[in-house]
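Annotated sample (chain length 540).
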Amino acid sequence: MKAATLKTYLDVHTWTGLGSGLLLFIAFYTGALTVFREELDAWDRYLEPSQAHQDYLQAQRLLDLAVREHTSVAANTVRMDLSDADHPGHLVRWFERLEDGSFAGHAFRLSGSEELEASHREAHLAGFIYRLHYTAGLPESFGLYVLGFVCVLYGLALVSGLLIFLPNAMRNLFVVRPGKNTKRFWLDTHNVVGVLSLPWHVMYAWSSALLAIGVLVLAPFQYLVYENDLQALIGAQLGLAAGPEPAGEQARQLAVADLVEIASRELPGLEPFQLRYENLGDANATVMVRGVTDTGTLSPFASVTLKATTGEVLHTQDPATAEMGSTFYSGLVSLHFASFGGYLARWLYFVLGLAGAFLFYSGNLLWIESRRKRRSPQQTGGSYFLARLNSGVCIGCMAAVSAAFLASRGFAASAWRAEMTEYVYFGVFFLSIAWCYLRPVAIATRDLLYLAALLSAAIPLVDLVLPGNSTGFRGHAAHPGVVIVDLMAGVAALAFWRMGAAVRRRALNGELCSVWVSQEIGRCDTRGREVQDTGRMGGE
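Output written by the structure step:
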């Protein structure tokens, strides 16, 4: 490959990586945690009072009470989450569009006396971490689309990085050279992790862009090519069925138990977990009975769409007999969310997700080291800026996620639990970034890693000292998800502490002409000569 061509690929790889790396770090770190969403949800519900399993008659009562007491139900999509082993109580929820264009969420369950009860304390942590995964903390109204375009840059970085590595692929594939040349060590590690997980990264870049901005890509075809008929053309392929228009007349709906029975008869083996109503109470109301089936396919999800007043089957989505387009789309979703393969696939995705986060963090470190070697022994302002931002965003995100766990546990009995969980996350996140700009890079990075370690260690410790923990361990035994989360937090605490110690050692003993050395122990003169001082690292 010609040197000019190689330089072009290197520039593309560098700038696409820098342009997308920080947001993708947040997406990958939180995505790795989201793989265990059920376990996160079980951990978050640890302190909720036990509840008897509810049947379909109680589901019907919950729905009837919601319709009777809240007029906004009829004009919105209503979801009835059915009870299961981990969630013994039914939950009805919907979003109401307000006059200013915003949305207000509503969620209700049955109380012990079978009256309507607002579900203010509903577990929120898993959903919040998932939202961070697809918005990186940006406002949801546009964060999803921003991440979609970032994933396009991510794809360019993957292709250009592979082309850079290919000429020496066989010679350097498994080579990692630790030692005094820090840049070489980071480059080797970056290459090994990137190349060995390349197929997974290609799938993620592609599926993420498709899921996030696929609608925007299809929009020109919808309006300019197919004259507004594209949705009708591909709807069946994607398992979508357009329901009838509202009749404007009230009509009696079939009972929840009857709807589930019809769906199970239409699709044997269906295990329903949700009913999704459109135009509830109307003569043309529809309900989609969603569930899982054991078909041996990549995607286990299936659904039966019925007319809510008569039980007429309008559409069936069976992964075993689905159209090619639907099979492709649902398979891509399953690949993205690891909804196959059980715990083996989920642990693999977890490790690969953390490895992906490492790629973006290490890529920024490589740029900092390379810039110093090329330009001058003294670091430039741009290098300091990126080093501070890299540590503040990446390490701050990890510390903030651990803080969000503690906030969710600490405010478990509060009606403001969801809000406080988010406030704590964003507070720790932005304070971490500010800390990196107020302190020398090495000291701030060390401090944040130690903070992340302490916050992570507090997660299992708080569970051990919770009031009434004499019954807590029985809760742990009842759901392994709680144990998994606490053990993962403990391992994370140890890893963060060791990384903090490594940063401290480098700050004390590393190359003085570097952003990673403490400014109190060394400096570079104008000609790049290292000058050793007798001071020690701040705070030591």
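Annotation: Residues 468-478, 525-540 have pLDDT under 50 and may be disordered.
Annotation: Residues 342-375 form the longest helix (34 residues).
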